[in-house]
Amino acid sequence: MCLKLQQLRRTLLSSYRILLKYKAAKYGLRKAITEAKTQYREKLDSFYSTADAGRIWQGLQHITDYTTTTGTTISPSDILPDDLNTFYACFETSSDNTERRHTHIGTSQPPFFLPIVSSAVVQKALRKINTCKAAGPDNIPWQALRVCATELADVLTSTFNLSLSQSTVPICFKTTTIVPLPKKSSCNLP
């Protein structure tokens, strides 16, 4: 039906100069569009004319153009981790390798590198803290962290490195305290 409508539209456009041929083509196109709409309406009505839930769902899927896709599963491969390691290793430079610790897990496992956080990196991060923000869940103001960056850097560095070596995040880093703040009302109640 769509091809027929396209052909009639092309005929209409090509016959624009000749008025009688143009009017006939325009009438034919309008009639074909009306017939196509009628057929489509009847098709949709057939989905909803019965009390069958399956047909109703088919109608909804037809209207929304919903198609069920068969999920493609990726078969697990033994070489996938090696491929990923090779891919990401090409982005590391030799200077990065000097800052990493080489650790073996068992004898059959390939070696992996644990990142080591240096005290200078932690101190730099503490000095970059925005002091205009509110205090954290432990109510330590950001200004204090920024001022005491040199003293806190060693303590936090050992905590970060221990967390990385154990592959766990300390519970105190996971907990948060949510304090609801009331909205300011526009009118003052007595």
Explain the overall architecture.
The protein folds into three domains: 2-64; 81-113, no CATH class; 117-169, no CATH class. Helix content is 56%, strand content 4%. It is built from nine helices and two strands; from the N terminus they run αααααββαααα. The protein has helices at 2-14, 19-48, 53-64, 80-89, 94-98, 119-127, 142-147, 149-166, 171-174; strands at residues 100-103, 112-115. The longest helix is centred in the first third of the chain and has 30 residues, at 19-48. Mean pLDDT is 76; it is low at 96-107. This is Reverse transcriptase.
Key phrases:
mainly alpha; 9 helices; Reverse transcriptase; two-stranded antiparallel ribbon; 190 residues
Short note summarizing the structure:
By secondary structure, the chain is mainly α. The chain is built from 9 helices and 2 strands. Mean pLDDT is about 75; it is low at about 95-105.
How much strand? under 5%
The radius of gyration is 35 Å
Total tally of structural domains? 3
Let me know the average pLDDT. Answer: 76
How much helix is in the residues?
55-70%
Enumerate the spans where pLDDT stays under 50 for 5 or more consecutive residues: 96-107
**Total count of strands:** 2
Largest sheet: 2 strands, antiparallel
What's the layout of helices and strands?
Elements (H helix, E strand, L loop, with lengths): L1 H13 L4 H30 L4 H12 L15 H10 L4 H5 L1 E4 L8 E4 L3 H9 L14 H6 L1 H18 L4 H4 L16
Antiparallel strand pairs: 1-2
Helix pairs in contact: 1-2, 2-3, 6-8
